[in-house]
Amino acid sequence: MLEFLFCSLLTIVPDYLYRRYAQDKRLGREITFFSVWHELRWGITLCAILTTTLITIVFFYHPSSKSVRSYFRTVTILSETGGRVSEVFVTNNQKVEAGTLLFRLDSSSQRAAVETAQRRIEEVDARLQAAGAELEAATAGVREAQAAVDVIEDDYRRNKALLDRGSSAVPVAEVERLENELHVRQGALEAAVANQVFAEEKISIQLPAERATAVASLEQARAELAKTEVFAGETGRVEQFGLQVGDYINPILRPAGILVPSSFDGQRFAAGFDQITASVIKPGMVAEMACLAEPFTIIPMVVADIQDVIPSGQIRPTDRLVDPQDNPRPGTLTVFLEPLYAQERLTMPPGSTCIANAYSSMHDKLEDPDLGLGRWLYYHMVDTVALVHAAILRIQVLAMPVQTLVFSGH
Fold it and tell me: Is the pTM of this model over 0.90?
């Protein structure tokens, strides 16, 4: 409407003045409701063309967006394991610090597992002490078997020497008996040595490995026990937290609530502009924003960054090929806006709904000494019509509270 009124001042009004004063045609006589088109056809046609051109130039070089949001991150309050709630330490809408215990699940089975793992470690320690005594007994058995071998070996060598010299004092059967007895004693010595080696390996290898396994089981049991306590990962405010003792929590189906971190600064807004403006919007462009949370306020902004991709083109691997005609919407160009003045801190609550205008500047192109007259006039016109869009934004800001409170039906 504002563009039409402006264009009519340059087309319809001069045409009417010419008809009225140059051709002496009077409103209500020669110029009536039914003869308006015939009498003012040139002005109406030029006004329609000029209005369409002006609107196209304004919205192309100075695009607007009604989809502006300050997105913030939330953290789902969720346990790592399922269980029934035994204790609750916070309430809904309570501000908590990082590391605050929020609630605890029933941990009777996990505590029993920890106790069992601790008893296994004590059992292995006791077996280590018993294995030390077994090693001492095996060492003593080796010494005993070695002594028995030495005694039999001395008797065998002495009688064998006498038999070899032809002495009749030593029968052959006695020498053979001593030789067999020596073999028996040597076998017993080897068995005793094997028992000693087994006891040493049991102390140095087997039991330490069993103890390490028991310690790992204890750590695993403690880790499972720790999963029954849920802490706040960040400083923030607990929202939608209606947990009570006896409720069952499931990490997949039943979260406990939401934690809204307080680290969000709220100084960056995401705006969705039409794709046709992708060649116009650049980082550093000046913008203006108005929000429902701060009525009658125009906030100077600047384009800080532009998302490289358009979200509507996102795909995920599935068992079906993507058909482009199934896309429900063309998608918008995501532009990130920040306050133009760094010292100005925005106070809108996170998630505020806003509208924004971005303004192209032809100042750098106008400074080109080789710029032709036609382009010079065109670029000046582009910069000038930004006032139209700025005025439209201010009209929207003035009408926003009335439209929201009176005509929205709420």
Answer: no
